[in-house]
Amino acid sequence: SLKYVSECDIIHALDIYPYGIIAWISSFILRKKFVLTLLGTYSLDPLHRSSMTWISKMVCRRANAITAISGFTKNEVERIIGLSNITVINPGIDFNKFYNTHVQSPENFILSVGALKPRKGYHISISAFAIAQKQIPGLKYKIIADQDNPSYFEELKKIAEKCGVLKDIEFIQKISDEELKDFYSKARLFILTSINDDWSVEGFGIVFLEAAAAGLPTIGTLKTGIEDAIDSEKNGLLVQQGSINETAEAIVKIAGDQVLWDSMSRNSYEWAKNHDWLVIINKYLEIYKKI
Q: What's the predicted TM-score (pTM) here?
């Protein structure tokens, strides 16, 4: 409410729609400073909708400071609007909450965590897993995602069945934070092969940091915000969107090489620690001080 906002020194909104628009109007009425953080889909999509383009551009141009959670988001918005003053500040995690010593599980499995939607690219990772399993016998795949998209869920099961790996894939949903932490600690590697679906995009990918905090090497995709969520070639690998073969090669490269795995695991711990909120928050405080 305006009453609540009036008691603040700075209004900080996440994404252009709807919160950025609300914050801009509030800042205009109350004469407050206004910071806008661009996350991904709900910053890019409004800029491509003819009915919202004007107001979306106005929100960006009137902000006293703009941050973006990834270089991908920053570059796309700057390209559309013509701005050059966006600061990239990657998201953080509570490192201690997700930190865990990796356990050598008797069940050798790779892990994905994320909403069950086409943008997450599960149809790519399942097909790639089927190829990788031929070189790493006994490899399993666990996907943790709420199954609230029945048509896509059925499509994935059909792909898995066609590839002959349905029995080796476990779809899991509705688990606690502690259970999720346990899955991270036992997995061989973390994978999420997100794709850009028009302007529905992966703005960053917090799950990559969560997995890294448990010492997992990670695999993600290029030309998405995931480029900022993985320390490429150090704690994980980035592959081309939609490339089943390249994704399969990345799985085999990491899961089949213990020396490489150990190195990436060590780097993942360090990468996640450097993204702890206690580190990240100082970057936002500097923005606040400047305005």
A: 0.95
